[in-house]
Amino acid sequence: MKIAIAGSGALGCGFGYHLQKSGEEVTLLDNWADHIQVVSENGLTITVNGKEDNLKMNMCKPHELNEEMDAIFVFTKSMGLKPMMESIDHIIGADTKVICLLNGLGHLKTLEHYVDKKNIIMGTTVWTAGIDAPGITHFNGQGPVELQNSDPSEKEGALVIVDMLQRSGLNGVYSDNVNYTTWRKACVNGTMNALCALLDTTIEKVFSTSTIDSMLSGIVTEFATVARLQDDIKLDVEETITYLKNLADKVGAHYPSMHQDLANNRPTEIDFLNGAVAEASKRFGVEAPYCQKVTDLIHAKEDILGIPSASNS
After folding, report:
1. Rounded distance, CA 14 to CA 138, Å?
2. At what angle do helices 274-284 and 212-231 cross, to 10 degrees?
3. Number of helices and strands (H, E) in the chain?
4. Structural domain that includes position 187
5. How does pLDDT run across 156-194, given as a tens digit for each residue?
6. CB of 251 within 8 A of CB of 245?
7. Does residue 311 belong to any structural domain of this protein?
8. Which of the residues are catalytic?
9. Which of 59, 67, 86 is nearest to 5 (CA)?
10. Do the strands 69-74 and 2-6 form a parallel or antiparallel pair, or are they unpaired?
11. Residue ranges of the Ketopantoate reductase N-terminal domain (predicted)?
């Protein structure tokens, strides 16, 4: 299968590596010139769960790929989805499957402007990753990649992608309610990502603080309220907090992506996470003080560092 990875940062490289190792024809797409040059000249150097490897991979800028793909995995930042879709429109055919594994909320509406709904597969992943230098990444985890086709009548298309992920070691599973897992993943990023970015530390250290229970309860309760009002998704607050703590035990040494963004002077995805919850709460006439304050603090930190926010970039 001809596969493009649209947005080949840490997670995109990890998925592309596994898919090519399993026999798929993969092209990494990105706009970071130094990253492209190193991968093109030296191959991708990647450490997967502590084991280092190097793999020769095709990599170029989106406009430089000039053939239709069978499948495209989208791994941009939330604010980069629209410009990426515009730049890869020429490689999307009538039957090209587009698999969205982005963090954040509201991406289906964006994708529907560029792709027939029958070809959009939404999903979530709990794999973690990071870039150590151009062309050098790490990729950790073993959890599921949950997928569901946006058009219920097109389940078979999603099952083909699920099978491919299983064969590549990425643990694909079909979900009958990916909206639920999307909201729960948003809770992961709205707590772990945001708090690690604000406190400038790892997941493990954030979750060992004396105030973690209060912070988790406040943020998750607000996510659960908006999920119910907006999408009729029922998130159990206590179950979600238990899930977060169990996940933190597994990936505690990790600096999540929002922390990495600030460390590298890049805008964060906060407006598509806590910010989205805070904005939606206003429409529904409910309060979301935790999410609003977290959003304000992240934007304040962006301002201090001289980073344009996602809404202004």
Report:
1. 8
2. 50
3. 13, 12
4. 179-305
5. 999 999 999 999 999 999 999 999 999 999 999 999 999
6. no
7. no
8. 185
9. 59
10. parallel
11. 3-150
